[in-house]
Specification:
Layout lengths: L11 E7 L8 E7 L17 H14 L2 E7 L1 H7 L1 H15 L6 E5 L11 E4 L7 H24 L5 H4 L5 H10 L20
Parallel strand pairs: 1-4, 4-5
Antiparallel strand pairs: 1-2, 2-3
Length: 198
């Protein structure tokens, strides 16, 4: 069972993002405030869960959370400010969208940048330690995977319905044969011999 909070008697929002290592599509972040006494042994780091489990848990989290929100940073923003800053931007947007204002943020990772006047703690591998961060990772992953499945219909041939835009063999083969789409991140290295592609 993951930890319910870092410190008791305060509203903590767990924050996580997904899609940093993808070659295309937005980076997506979520923020979740869970009740202090909430417990669900199934909630864990989204990468450790089956797709069907994540889908079930999305409804569970949304129903039981005090507040939750999902936000994006676009491909254009990723190319303009870099993927790390775009991840922070998406997380900040998710926090701002929450219907309750958190008193503290639990950020998955070792770094965060914000102009919000909310104190925060960075927790390495936090999605495997704190329930609220794990819940945020689940919401962000399901949202982004669903989005990439829709993009896969619009731009077939890259296998996004399976790889969600990560640099798999099928995705790279699609790039070789079909070139880049408008939702590919132009500042990312898509292929080892990529220079001829631009």
């Amino acid at each position: 069972m993951l930890l319910p909070y870092l410190e008791s008697n305060r509203l903590e929002a767990g924050c996580d993002e997904v899609g940093r290592g993808c070659l295309c599509g937005p980076v997506v972040a979520a923020a979740v405030i869970l009740p202090e006494d909430y417990a669900d042994e199934l909630i864990n780091d989204s990468k450790k869960l089956k797709k069907s489990s994540r889908a079930t848990l999305v409804n569970e989290i949304k129903t039981n959370a005090i507040a939750w929100a999902v936000a994006e940073a676009s491909v254009e923003e990723i190319d303009e400010i870099n993927i790390l800053n775009a991840s922070f931007l998406a997380m900040n947007r998710a926090v701002v969208k929450l219907t309750h204002s958190p008193e503290h943020l639990l950020i998955d990772g070792n770094k965060f940048k914000t102009e919000l006047e909310i104190p925060y703690s960075c927790i390495v591998k936090g999605d495997g330690k704190y329930a609220s961060i794990a819940a945020a990772s689940i919401l962000a992953k399901v949202y982004r995977d669903t989005l990439m499945e829709k993009y896969a219909l619009q731009y077939p041939g890259y296998g996004w319905e399976k790889n969600a835009g990560y640099p798999t063999k099928a995705h790279r083969e699609g790039i070789r044969q079909l070139g880049l789409t408008p939702i590919h991140r132009k500042t990312f290295k898509h292929l080892p011999d990529q220079l001829s592609m631009f």
